């Protein structure tokens, strides 16, 4: 894998801010991969390229989703920006020559998550949240959690995503809910302070 080539090609398809973010995700992914004994090279490549489809228009994303036979539902058609992950998973093959299934999956799931997330999937999902350029309420708590509990930090990030979408009165994507429930079941996390 040729990181310099990927960086040079990525500069051509992303705006400056998104490119800087991608470098930050690569950095965060590398640190998480070291911490959680994941493949460092795969984490760096997936982190770098995770947003390779981010600057495409809604029309381009839908067109490419159709080309790649990505199943479209009402939520994706109403929120096409969610397609940048799945579409990016295919573009890394077509545009960057990367056909590694683990990297592809991590890129595809980095925004929504899904059931049965691998360690690499979790690392890229979380790195996208905690990269050094991010500055939002709660990011420091996520960074701290990520240094000691990968699964717990991913659950926190999923909770923040779901809460953000609800506050914006937007549609929840089912894979995000499935990812959260799956993580909680598998880690035996107890939901606190819920009155039934």
TrEMBL record:
SMART domains: HDc
HD/PDEase domain residues: 14-142
Family matches, as InterPro entries: Diverse_Catalytic_Enzymes, HD/PDEase_dom, HD_domain, YqeK
Known EC number: 3.6.1.41
Reaction equation(s) it catalyzes: P(1),P(4)-bis(5'-adenosyl) tetraphosphate + H2O = 2 ADP + 2 H(+)
Alphabetic keyword roster: Hydrolase, Iron, Metal-binding, Nucleotide-binding
GO molecular function, one term: bis(5'-nucleosyl)-tetraphosphatase (symmetrical) activity
Protein name, entry field: bis(5'-nucleosyl)-tetraphosphatase (symmetrical)
The species this protein was found in: Thermoanaerobacterium thermosaccharolyticum (Clostridium thermosaccharolyticum)
């Amino acid at each position: 894998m040729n990181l310099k080539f990927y960086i040079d090609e990525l500069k051509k398809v992303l705006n400056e801010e998104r490119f800087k973010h991608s470098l930050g995700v690569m950095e965060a992914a590398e640190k998480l991969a070291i911490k959680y004994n994941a493949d460092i090279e795969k984490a760096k490549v997936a982190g770098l390229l995770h947003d390779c489809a981010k600057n495409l228009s809604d029309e381009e994303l839908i067109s490419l989703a159709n080309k790649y036979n990505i199943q479209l539902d009402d939520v994706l058609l109403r929120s096409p920006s969610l397609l940048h992950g799945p579409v990016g998973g295919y573009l890394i093959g077509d545009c960057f020559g990367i056909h590694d299934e683990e990297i592809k999956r991590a890129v595809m799931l980095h925004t929504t998550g899904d059931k049965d997330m691998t360690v690499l999937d979790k690392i890229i999902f979380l790195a996208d949240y905690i990269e050094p350029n991010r500055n939002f309420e709660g990011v420091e708590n996520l960074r701290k959690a990520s240094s000691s509990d990968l699964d717990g930090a991913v659950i926190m990030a999923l909770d923040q995503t779901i809460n953000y979408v609800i506050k914006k009165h937007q549609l929840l994507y089912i894979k995000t809910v499935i990812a959260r429930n799956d993580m909680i079941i598998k880690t035996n996390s107890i939901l606190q302070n819920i009155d039934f």
